[in-house]
Amino acid sequence: MTWRDVREPWPATFLLTGALVAPSLASVLWSALTTAGATSGDIALIELRVRDVLSAHPPLVGAYSRYGWDHPGPLLFWLAALPYRLFGGGGHALRLTALLINTVSLVAMLRVAALRGRAAWFAVAGAVVALVAGLPADALASPWNVTVTHLALMAFAVGCWSFWCGDRGPAGWVALVAGSFVVQSHVGVGVVIAPLALATLVASVVRWWRSGAERATASWFAGVVG
User: Fold this and answer.
1) CA dist 50 to 36, 82, 102, 129, 138, Å?
2) Of 42, 104, 184, 219, which sees the most CB atoms within 10 A?
3) Partners of 64 in beta bridges
4) What is the pLDDT of residues 162-197, one digit of tens each?
């Protein structure tokens, strides 16, 4: 494999993503051929909320917690609604939708990492492989709001890191969307999201202030010399 440009390692990104999602995809397809695919428990509640998105009573809060309250937002349901229907509906469709969400998270974080160079891409790729290897075989296809946020949380962290390093393009959007998705899906992850988002914001403001001060100093010096 050759890398024409470190900033565009699309072949490596797609190959790694395909290798990571293949076991979960095979598990879903095999399950679709051998079982009815009915959901139960928390997953059944999530499926019902996904079905409600395009109804007269769309969900406005997140997944129900066993402690008697709802998680903050319905983004998980809204993101899943269209692919869920395109995949035919039912338990298998919901699992394929979860796998699609995780696939997008994988591609997004690897793409953002590539903006920091080849070494950064390999570092993030290694961390992703380690994370996925530590999960159950079909975890990437789990629509449970606790597990479907793992890769999105990592994408948020990579986006914040790249934004911190000065990327004002994809990194900011990846961090914003992934962070919102994770917090809305499971409020408990806010203890990770909040400090990291605050640190990124502070670092960005400091960098902006320093760049402005440097420009002002350079202009003053040029005026004095001139």
Assistant:
1) 19, 9, 17, 30, 21
2) 184
3) 70
4) 888 877 778 888 999 999 999 999 988 888 888 888
- Per-residue pLDDT for 9 more than 60? yes
Question: Three-state DSSP class for 56?
Answer: coil
Q: How buried is residue 141: exposed, middle or buried, by Cβ count under 10 Å (0-12/13-18/19+)?
A: buried
Distances (CA, A) of 15 to 11, 30, 35, 173: 6, 22, 30, 24
Encode pLDDT of 122-174 as tens digits. 999 999 999 999 888 788 999 998 899 999 999 999 999 888 887 777 888 89
* Residue spans of alpha helices (H) in the chain: 10-34, 41-52, 75-86, 91-114, 118-133, 150-164, 170-185, 190-225
Contact 150, 135 (CB under 8 A): yes
- Half-sphere exposure in the Cβ direction for 51 (13 Å, CA): 11
Torsion sign over Cα 20, 23, 24, 28? positive
